[in-house]
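User: Can you predict the 3D structure for this chain?
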Amino acid sequence: MHERAVLSSQNNSGTISLADGSAGYKVRLNETTTHRTALKKIYSDDTFIEFVLARSEDSWPVENLLSYAESLLPGWNTTNEQTASIEDIAHHESGHALVAYLSGMTVLDVTIKRKGLINGHCIHSRALNGKSYIDTQWDTLRISLAGNAVDHLRGIFDANSSADMHSAHASMLALISTGISPSGYHGALSFDSMLGCARQEVQELAEKHMAVISELAVALLECQSLNGRAVRGFFESKLGIRQGDPAP
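Assistant: Here is the predicted structure, written as structure tokens:
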């Protein structure tokens, strides 16, 4: 039998009630919000935050909650076949940044996070060089695969690129939906064909520029975050390509 949860309005005690029709459950909204805020300052994985909240008590002091969250990390991290190190994350995000830059995209920020769950991100915007929607989707597909390509070239085989794969899947769906092939792509508009071709292109770029990727990773390990101007200056000096120029 399916359980049915009904959310009631907030009452005067600052709580909300979840009821299945016969029993009520009280949740101290203020305490839960405080705990979630404290966890978000350290952890960026929303699923892990909800996992900690679900297993803890709202009456706990914040310092007890944070200590408990830290104790859960080893077991949480082993859900991947291999847990990436901070050095691996730095190379992974640098790979995204390299392919984004060579695609003519503007890299806005590259960041790695040492505290709590080790992770990172590379934020970029679309190119302003007249590329079509189709070609931009192809570039986005390649950028999504870049971190994983760097991982594999460095002997890292884990599930840390799953979010990137979702992004790659979305780009392929968009291309299949239009029925129009990107410039220079002559394969079928199918998942297997596009994924194989884009992965090959990205792997070749990563192999060619691995020394540059590693240098950017070192800078990330030192600074933890690089803004768009710093990333552009780095690639201009290392690649000799000004932003917006075609890849050699």
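The chain has a mean pLDDT of 83. Strands lie at 6-7, 15-19, 24-28, 106-113, 119-125, 225-227.
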